[in-house]
Write a structure and sequence with these properties.
By secondary structure, the chain is mainly α. Helix content is about 75%, strand content about 0%. The protein has 5 helices and no strands. It has helices spanning about 1-15, 20-30, 35-55, 60-85, 95-115. Helix 1 (about 1-15) packs across helix 3 and helix 4 (about 60-85) packs antiparallel against helix 5. The two termini are about 25 Å apart.
Length: about 120
């Protein structure tokens, strides 16, 4: 069983670097494995490759949550400063609701991602 896991890990790295499944299958046939074992290895490589592809481009929920809280804090601080005339912008009324709303959305997205991972 450990040999199969080692083969899965080895060929997963090759798959990430661009090797095709047909090439992997050809190499596995030269290792005197049965068709059932080769099929099992290919299925495991495919599952791990899909998992890697789904998680590689996303930010972690903790990072999203921190960015969301930072945006909410900055937007709230700017809104507070404008409201109490600590920050005067002349004729322009500046309310930083945008960063507050975007920050809240990021926090909600982070919670949903975290619940999906569980």
């Amino acid at each position: 069983m450990s040999q199969i896991n080692e083969l899965v890990d080895y060929y997963l790295e090759k798959k990430k670097s661009g090797m095709d499944f047909s090439e992997i299958r050809k190499e596995l046939k030269t290792k005197d494995l049965t068709d059932k074992e080769i099929k099992k290895i290919i299925i495991e490589i495919d599952a791990k490759a899909l998992e890697y592809a789904q998680t590689s481009g996303k930010m972690k929920p903790k990072d999203l949550r921190l960015i969301g809280y930072a945006l909410m804090l900055i937007g709230g601080g700017l809104t507070f400063a404008v409201y109490f005339k600590l920050l005067v912008l002349g004729k322009f009324l500046f309310a930083a609701y945008g960063p507050v709303i975007i920050g809240y959305i990021l926090v909600v997205m982070a919670r949903r991602q975290q619940n999906k991972l569980k």
